[in-house]
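Sequence, please.
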C-alpha cells in the first residue's frame, strides 16, 4: 500500500492541529500517513497520494505552499490529491465563502485544474488569538473586522478525512 503525505502551512498552529487530525484519522483506518510542514520541504517521491492544506490571510495563501507545489507539480498531478483550506470565514458555509477560500487556494495550487479536483474540498474554521498576533496583523485583523475565537472542530475534520480515505489508496 502507498503512503499518504499530509502537507500543510501554518502561522499560528491551527492548520497544524487540523493536519495532524487528518493524519490520525487516515492512520486510524489503516492508511500509512505522514504529516509534514511545507517548511520541511517533504520529498514527494516517497508518497502515492497527498493532502495539501493552508490557512488564508488577507485573502491569500502564503507563498511557501505555492513554491512547494511549483517544485513538485508534475508528481502531484500524477497522484490523487485532496485539498483543505483554513480560515475564519469558514465558520459559515455560503457559496461566497466557498468561492473566496477556493480562489485563494487555487492561486497557491498554480491554478492547476488537476490538484484536489477529484475529492471534496475541505474548508475548516481556524482560530484567531489576538494576544499571539504581531502588531501589524492585529491591525489587519481590526481593519478586516475579524473576530477573535477558536473555531477548530476536529470532529468535522475527522469526518472529512474519513470521507476521502478510501479514495487516497
Ligand atoms: C491578520 C489576519 C488576516 C486573516 N485573513 C483571513 C482571510 O482573509 N480569510 C479568512 O477566512 N480567514 C482569515 N484569517 C483567519 C486565519 O485564516 C485563521 O486564524 C487561521 O486559523 C490561521 O491559521 P494558522 O493558525 O494555521 O496560522 C485571518 C487572520 C488574521 C490574524
Amino acid at each position: 500500500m502507498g503512503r499518504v503525505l499530509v502537507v500543510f502551512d501554518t502561522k499560528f498552529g491551527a492548520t497544524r492541529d487540523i493536519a495532524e487530525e487528518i493524519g490520525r484519522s487516515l492512520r486510524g483506518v489503516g492508511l500509512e500517513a505522514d504529516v509534514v510542514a511545507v517548511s520541511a520541504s517533504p520529498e514527494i517521491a516517497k508518497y502515492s497520494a497527498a493532502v495539501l492544506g493552508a490557512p488564508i490571510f488577507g485573502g491569500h495563501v502564503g507563498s511557501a505552499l505555492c513554491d512547494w507545489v511549483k517544485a513538485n507539480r508534475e508528481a502531484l498531478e500524477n497522484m490523487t490529491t485532496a485539498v483543505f483550506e483554513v480560515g475564519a470565514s469558514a465558520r459559515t458555509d455560503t457559496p461566497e465563502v466557498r468561492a473566496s477560500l477556493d480562489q485563494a487556494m487555487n492561486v497557491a495550487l498554480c491554478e492547476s485544474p488537476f490538484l484536489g479536483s477529484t475529492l471534496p474540498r475541505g474548508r475548516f474554521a481556524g482560530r484567531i488569538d489576538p494576544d499571539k498576533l504581531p502588531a501589524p496583523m492585529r491591525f489587519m485583523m481590526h481593519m478586516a473586522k475579524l473576530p477573535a475565537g477558536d473555531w477548530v472542530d476536529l470532529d468535522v475534520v475527522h469526518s472529512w478525512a474519513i470521507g476521502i480515505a478510501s479514495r487516497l489508496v
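Strands lie at 3-8, 32-37, 49-57, 60-61, 80-86, 122-124, 127-128, 149-150.
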